[in-house]
Amino acid sequence: MLKTQKHKKLQEYMLVAVRIAVAVILFTVAVSNYNKLTHLDVRGVVAAASSFGVAVTAVLGIYLLKSVLFVVPASIIYIYTGMAFDLPVALAINLAGIAIEVTVTFWLGRFLGSGYVEKKLRGKKWGEKLMNTRQKNKLSFLFGVRVLPAFPIDFVSLFLGASGIGFAPYFFVSVLGIMPRVVLFTVLGDGLYDYIPMELLVIVAISSIPVALLVWLVLYFRKKRKVVLPQQIDEPLVAPV
């Protein structure tokens, strides 16, 4: 019995260590490649490709990179892809990239969070709304979060993956909700991008990684403390001999 409890505690601490390590690696890679990320040129990548297939693969690779680093602004990928390819092809590539992004980040969130995040959602007004999208099949909240550009795609996907929401409804509603802005930026080109401070977006995204880790650690240790205290109270008092 004692060995089993020690084994469970060891597994729990190992999982915490892995999560911290993943966050540190993502933050380090993002900071060390800050200049490259803020000057990412999809058109240059496409122009340097030896064939159409290589060019498409390269752009989808950028989406994959974005899904784990969180610091590449989505708008620049939509715009530059629209400038590098014919419109129908650009739309197809961008939608495929979004599908990759919301999938990878969702499962990364599932790995980093799962049941713990779900417990933290209970009792919070916005958290209960998110829980309803899974439990009662009310997907209007999820669709609204995806349609409004105020919510970062990657961090919403990470959060929803950790919350335990089903993947299938999450995936289809996410793609449908994000699609209008993808089409808009792909069609209109880089004229809109002049109004978006790219450096600010990258700085905010990089800063969010350690902040999210710190918040998670605080909540984790608060949870551990709440579990330990009732156990200590319930222990029977032994009269001194």
Summed up:
The protein is mainly alpha-helical and 241 residues long.
How would you portray this structure in words?
The protein is mainly alpha-helical and 241 residues long. The chain has one domain (2-190, 197-211). Helix content is 80%, strand content 0%. The longest helix is centred in the last third of the chain and has 37 residues, at 198-234. Residues 237-241 have low confidence and may be disordered.
Sum up the structure in keywords.
elongated, disordered C terminus, 241 residues
Silhouette:
elongated
Task: Tell me the helix content.
Answer: over 70%
**Mean pLDDT score, rounded?**
69
Strand content: under 5%
Low-confidence stretches: 237-241
CA gyration radius, whole angstroms: 22 Å
Q: Report the sheet with the most strands, covering strand number, pairing sense and barrel closure.
A: none
Number of domains: 1
Structural class: mainly alpha
Strands, count: 0
Q: How far do the termini sit from each other?
A: 28 Å
Annotation field: number of helices:
12
What is the H/E string? HHHHHHHHHHHH
Task: Summarize the helices and strands and which ones pair or pack.
Elements: H1 2-32, H2 34-38, H3 42-48, H4 52-69, H5 74-84, H6 87-112, H7 115-121, H8 125-135, H9 140-147, H10 153-163, H11 167-188, H12 198-234
